[in-house]
Amino acid sequence: MMLIAGTHKRSSCNGFVFCRRLAAFLRYIALTSALVGFPRLALASPRGFILNSFFSTASVFNRFGRIVVTGLVAVWLAGCASTSNYPAAPAAAATPDYNYIVGPGDNLNIIVWRNPELSMSVPVRPDGKLSTPLVDELVVQGKTSIEIARDVEKALSKLVRDPVVTVIVTGFIGPYSEQIRVVGEAAKPQALPYKQKMTLLDVMIAVGGLTDFADGNGASITRAAEGDKRYSVRLKDLIKRGDISANVEMKPGDVLIIPQGWF
Length: 263
What we know:
5-stranded mixed beta sheet; wza like fold; Outer membrane lipoprotein wza fold like; 3 domains; 10 strands; 6 helices
C-alpha cells in the first residue's frame, strides 16, 4: 500500500514521468551509439585511441541528452504552471443602469402614433444611419432607443403636428465597442452582442467551448470599460472541472483571449 501511494503522488503530473522516461531513453541511445562505434574503431586504432573515442562519444550523447531533457522539462513546467500574472477578474461586473446601445445591423421598429403611413421597420445601415418617410438621414449608432425616438420626433415636427414616436429594437447586434469578442483557442471564435448579466459561462457556451490545445487557465479578459485592464480567468476549472466559482460576469466591450497551451 505504501508503494502504491508513493507512486500515485509522484505521477501527479504526467509530464514528469514522460521526461524521466525520455531521459532514460536518450541515455540508452548514447551508450548504444558509443558501443556500436567501438568495434569499427578497433580495427584501425590503438587501444588508447579506442577508449578515448568511446568515452568522447558517450560524453557527447550524454550532454545532448541532458540538454534535450532540460529543455523539455522547462517547457513542461511552463505548461503545468499556466497561470496568468494578471489579477483575477471580479465576480460581479454588470451595472444596474445599463441601457442597450444601437449599432449597425440592428433592426428598429419605428411607430408614429396616429400616423401608420409613417410607421415602419427599418435596419440600421453600416454607416450607423437610417432613413424613414420624411426623415432622410438620421444618425442612430451609439444611441438608446429612447434617444432615437426623440430625434425622430424632432425631425417629424417640421411636417407633423406634435408627433409621438416609439422605437423598439427587434434585432440585436450592437456596435463593435459593446460586443464581447472571443479570440484564440475557442471552438468558434466570434463576436457576441452583450446582454445584461452575461457571464463567462454564457460566452463559452456560445463559442462552443475550448479546443484541445487551449490553455484554459491561462486565459485573460481585456476590459475596455476600465482602460483595457487585463484580468485572468480560469476557463479550464470552469468548463472541465465544473468549478462555478470561476464564473464571472462580463462587461460591454470585453475581449476574451484564450492562448494555446504547450501540452
